[in-house]
Amino acid sequence: MTTENSAAAAIAFTRRGFVKMGGALIVSFAIPARLCALASDTQAPSYATPLASWLEIHSDNSIVVRTGRTETGTGMSGYYAQAIAEELRVRPEAISLTMGDTDKTPDGGYSAGFLAGMANVRKVAAYTYRALLKLASNQLGVPIEDLSVTDGIVSGSGKTVSYGQLVAGQLLELTIPVTGALAQPDPTQWVGMTSLDGLAVAGEPPLKPVDQFKVIGTSYPVPGIPDKVIGKTQWSCDVTLPGMLHARMIRPATLGATLVSAGTVDRKQFPNAQVVTKGTLVAVLSPNEFETISAARVVAASTKWTDWSGLPGSDNLTKTLRSYSWGAPAATRGKPEDVAAAFAKSSKTISASYEQPYVRHAPIGPFVAVAEVRSDGNVTIWTHSAQSQGLRARIAYLLGITTDRVVVRWLDHSGQYGRTTLGGDGAEADAAILSQLTGKAVRVQWTLQEDMAWSTVSPAWFSDIKAGLDAKGHIVALHSSFYSPHMFDPRPLGALLAGMPTATSKPGNWIATEWPYDKIQNRLEEAYGRPNLCADTASAGLRGNIMRTPGQRQQNFALEGLLNEAAAAAKADPVAFRLLHTTDQRLIDLLKATAKAAEWEERSSPRKDARKAGTAPVSGRGVCIMIRENAYWVGIAEISVVPDTGMVQVTKFTIGCEPGKIINPRQLGLCMKSGVVMGLSEALKEEVTFDKSKVTSTNWDRYKILTMEEMPEIKIVPLSRDDKDFGGGSEGANAVCAPAVTAAFFDATGIQARRIPLTPSYVTALLKG
Amino acid sequence: MANELTLSVNGVKAVVSAAPRTPLLFVLRNELGLTGPRLGCGMAQCGSCSVLLDGEEIRTCITPVSYAVAKEITTIEGLPAVWAAQKKLSAADAAHTLHPVQQAWIDEQVPQCGYCQSGMMIAAVELLSKNPNPSVAEIKDAFTNKPPSPHLCRCGTYAAIIDAVQRAAKAMNAQAATADRRNLP
């Protein structure tokens, strides 16, 4: 009861007035101390923009919920509606969500931060529920403990009242406590930004117990899907404004080139087109999109750039990365002395090095944005960034204005898998700069080639990892050293090329693994960082950025790769070997269930008849695990290899996931399957290639991703638990693919593949040894 | 130079002013406000801009608008009307009936980001018009090997697409059987 009382004490509930028509309960938040301090400091950006409410209940029983987080395609808009409906005891259909618009939503936060977003909306709803009960108790004259609510109807002692009736004729305001702040530029941070998490609802309002859930745990449909299917959705690429100009960017000829002279347009041929430049930023604009495209082709051909070559070429990538001095680790976890002692005592040591080239988010729809910089200096941006408040702060910083003068409006667009989580890397800066220069609203549409050559990338990496084994072959010590260039540099290209201010980002690195093997107590993990490749160019080089399951995807590949190598060294079954190294019952349960579903046969790898030559296919199987954000994952790959051609085909993939309480079973299943497609694509095909001066993998023939025909049979094993809260189920599936596939490759061929992608050329070279 | 061209889009005649070599995609989106087809690769490598031209899938990012003159263009916005006409639905029934492919896309919750999905639905409608009961292998083949390129989905929704195509096939075949019986003398 203490929790309930303190939560109730935290609620400030005021009646703003009475109204003749309608009526509403509006839930907004108490401005935290830090925001008040900022608002009173004339040097700091103010929050003059009225703060949007979080939740509103109207007299017609409709409910509006607002969040700065957005739908990224994995169903969050459905899960949020489910969580709110659960706490409020209403149907999820009664709830409409407003997402991402900075002037209409209160909280900020990055869209991939689902668990934080979920905690927020649940608490908002829980506070509101308590307030509504109090209202109902007063109105019905029935004590709160005698009231119950179903579908928004409060009942008790034979009396009933709906939420709508409770608020009818009144304007009520409920204020709830929050902590945190909205995003701001901060050059001392890795990402050049602070407060990307946005506001968090404070206090601990009593939440509905799991055993009373009616909505969470059902497959509520994702609200935006029907409009996408019938063509009613307005996408960010659909925004048109009066007098708007269509722009295409003319990017430098090479990664490090600077502008010598911009090409010109023949006004007879293109009467409405114009060329605009600023620094190294060059664009062609016209009110007609096809005139823009046609003129841009001509202008690009006659624009002159300085010569530049400074890239190592993708074939020399790992050698080059290894040649750098990486200095001291940017992050370390574990006690070096204990680990050194454990290695000294171990009877055998095995070690390996793993690596991966650059890969990229590669959205199907290249980036697009519309910006309007008005004569009064106020700015509106229409975009699909998954971090509206962060983007807003970045745009304000580059234009040299306060944050409150920028509004970001969010719309659906192509999936981007973390590329805009940090509020950068889109077409918004290009559009804002061009709008400021032309005085018109400007729509910038990147091309695929441009997106594939100039957007941020998930950086190449290598990892040196070793394990100390005891006499039985069990791991008693582990030491990993992970090296990758900057992974947090989403600075917008347009601002960089134009030489305008960007919120600097500081290279670093971090330990991303969540440790699954509690029996391996002596472990030392180190992560080394350094600037982008060719960071000193005007474009800041190959700007590294996070991508779906960032850091952990890479570091887990090395960890699980070594686990499989240690199992092979011990001639142990890889599933059984993992079970020997953990006492975590959630992991044990999921690993056993997934292995059973995959009809896993207990034996060691490689298989007896493994071979590394021949034209006939040979099959293999492999396993890996991961723990991430309170979710457990298991991947089991079955593959077929034709040694002489190097063709690797995944024939079946079984994926297990236990994310605590499953919120939406159908949607989790869809995310597990689609995540496997993305993970296999990375394991088998994806690589950003470049020569000495520019990226060369600039279309779908050169940056290959998995096709429908290459998708294996996928079997899902979802486990739900009522006693472990919620976990992240939408993201992680892609990270349990590569280690399972390379383990299966070893099983089939007896040869360790310590690099992805497993392309035919890499595989044939590897097998020929 | 811009010409006046008469197009037939989703059963409606439309006169547009456009240079004949303008890709059909930009005419549909910017002149006619049909935003179902969307720009992906711009070079017929992905399928997100697909529409039906006389029932055959084309990539509008590389098809000149002049090529579409005197042919029937169908975007996803026009699919319900195509189905209503095929089934001779009354206006009242047609108003609340989606094409079975669209209904299946909703029922199977196919779209994640959804950007590629209008092209996927167009490809599905074309496939089912030629093969009313495709196997999983035939669906994979159609979405991968039919020129000019595979239909790409970066979110990885291929499994849901296969389920939706088979669900739509079942629905269309069931309704076809009902209609056939109705037509018996």
Task: Count structural domains of chain B.
Answer: 2
Structural class of chain A: alpha+beta
Q: Which architecture of the largest domain in chain A does the CATH hierarchy give at level 2? A: 2-Layer Sandwich
Q: In the CATH hierarchy, what is the class of the largest domain in chain B? A: Mainly Alpha
Structure explained in plain terms:
The complex is a heterodimer of chains A (769) and B (185). Chain A has 769 residues and is of the alpha+beta class. Chain A folds into three domains: 2-222, Aldehyde oxidase/xanthine dehydrogenase, molybdopterin binding domain (Aldehyde Oxidoreductase, domain 4, 2-Layer Sandwich), CATH 3.30.365; 314-361 and 455-530, Aldehyde Oxidoreductase, domain 4 (2-Layer Sandwich); 567-768, 2-Layer Sandwich (Aldehyde Oxidoreductase, domain 4). The radius of gyration of chain B is 17 Å and the shape is globular. Chain B is built from seven helices and five strands; from the N terminus they run ββαβββαααααα. In chain B, α4 packs across α7. In chain B, 51% of the residues are buried. Chain B folds into two domains: 3-77, Roll (Ubiquitin-like (UB roll)); 78-180, DNA polymerase, domain 1, CATH 1.10.150. The interface between A and B is large, with 57 and 58 residues.
